[in-house]
């Protein structure tokens, strides 16, 4: 799938942009199904808000148990002072996560393809397992900022193996919150921190950050470069690469789909926040999806 120049660019920069990877039809199908999931979903208890800047506060039971379920997380600015939604539910959801790729046929077909498995292989990911997926809405006007981070902070393996596959389902622009990244940032100073369950394998004890390296991450947006891409593009992200996306204050949404894979040959600690409980086993990226 990849040329030697593309592989070289990925290892140099820590990211690789591949335009035209997903068809317009595939993107439309995934978008349609994501909207249906939100329409059908009703929170059974607490309305869970997702934020990356105060991750401890986001670590509710719903968040910590979502490794083998499908859950919808609200935008921080979705609610007014009275606790009511400011706009319809369909325009209030931040993301759907985190096992939808193994639980929904439309998401499964989009994720488990020979083409994506070939790219993972070309980049040196050994026996890639599809660990986590997120459908991200980046809602018009209230789409939240995603603070500068490294994916390996949240999905740690020893040795480091997590690789992000980020698909633009709609055009990602400077106005609606495209990704920004630090070219070569995956090769400097290593992993800054890890995000851990306070009580391994429980959903009640919360989470914490453990600092490994006090070197600051690049400051957005000045120390980063933007990655605006048209719908259908794939951006591959190294697990140590610092990246960020700003808030969406535009009237246009920026839907995206993200899959994070790890190598089956690495150790995935029980203190990682995201855990599968056995009923939904992890699957290799080259698994043939259902027709």
Largest sheet, described in full?
A: 7 strands, antiparallel
- Unreliably modeled segments: 54-58
The helix fraction, in percent, is 10-25%
The CATH architecture classification is Sandwich
Instruction: Bin the strand percentage.
Output: 15-25%
* CATH topology title: Jelly Rolls
Derived structural class: alpha+beta
Write the layout of secondary structure elements.
Layout: H1 4-13, E1 15-18, H2 24-40, H3 55-58, H4 61-64, E2 70-74, E3 93-98, H5 100-103, H6 105-111, H7 114-122, E4 128-136, E5 146-149, H8 151-154, E6 163-168, E7 179-181, E8 193-197, E9 207-211, E10 225-227, E11 234-238, E12 243-245, E13 256-263
Antiparallel strand pairs: 1-11, 2-3, 3-4, 4-13, 5-12, 6-11, 6-13, 7-10, 7-12, 8-9
Descriptive account of the structure:
- The chain is 20% helix and 23% strand.
- With 291 residues, the protein is an alpha+beta fold.
- The chain has a single domain (4-263), classed as Sandwich (Jelly Rolls), CATH 2.60.120.
- The strands form 3 sheets. A 7-stranded antiparallel beta sheet has the order 1-11-6-13-4-3-2. It has a 4-stranded antiparallel beta sheet with strand order 5-12-7-10, with no helix packed on it.
Q: Quick recap of the structure?
A:
With 291 residues, the protein is of the alpha+beta class. The chain has helices spanning 4-13, 24-40, 55-58, 61-64, 100-103, 105-111, 114-122, 151-154; strands at residues 15-18, 70-74, 93-98, 128-136, 146-149, 163-168, 179-181, 193-197, 207-211, 225-227, 234-238, 243-245, 256-263. The protein contains eight helices and 13 strands.
């Amino acid at each position: 799938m990849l040329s030697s120049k593309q592989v070289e660019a990925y290892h140099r920069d820590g990211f690789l942009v591949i335009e035209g990877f997903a068809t317009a039809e595939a993107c439309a199908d995934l978008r349609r199904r994501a909207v249906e999931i939100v329409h059908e979903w009703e929170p059974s208890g607490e309305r869970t808000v997702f934020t990356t800047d105060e991750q401890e506060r986001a670590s509710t039971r719903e968040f910590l148990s979502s490794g083998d379920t499908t859950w919808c997380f609200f935008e921080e600015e979705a609610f007014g002072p009275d606790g009511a939604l400011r706009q319809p539910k369909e325009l209030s959801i931040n993301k759907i996560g985190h096992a939808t790729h193994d639980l929904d046929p439309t998401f499964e077909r989009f994720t488990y393809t020979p083409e994506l498995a070939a790219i993972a292989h070309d980049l040196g990911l050994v026996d890639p397992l599809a660990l986590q997926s997120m459908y991200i809405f980046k809602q018009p006007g209230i789409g939240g900022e995603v603070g500068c981070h490294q994916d390996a902070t949240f999905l740690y393996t020893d040795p480091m193996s997590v690789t992000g596959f980020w698909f633009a389902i709609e055009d990602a622009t400077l106005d609606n919150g495209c990704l920004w990244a630090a070219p070569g940032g995956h090769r400097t100073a290593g992993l800054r921190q890890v995000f851990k369950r306070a009580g391994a394998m429980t959903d009640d004890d919360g989470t914490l950050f453990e600092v490994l390296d006090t070197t600051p991450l690049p400051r957005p947006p000045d120390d980063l470069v933007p990655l605006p891409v048209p719908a259908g593009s794939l951006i591959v992200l190294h697990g140590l690469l610092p990246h960020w996306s700003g808030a969406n204050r535009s009237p246009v949404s920026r839907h995206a789909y993200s899959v994070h894979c790890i190598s089956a040959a690495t150790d995935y600690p029980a203190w990682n926040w995201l855990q599968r409980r056995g009923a939904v086993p992890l699957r290799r990226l080259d698994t043939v999806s259902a027709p």
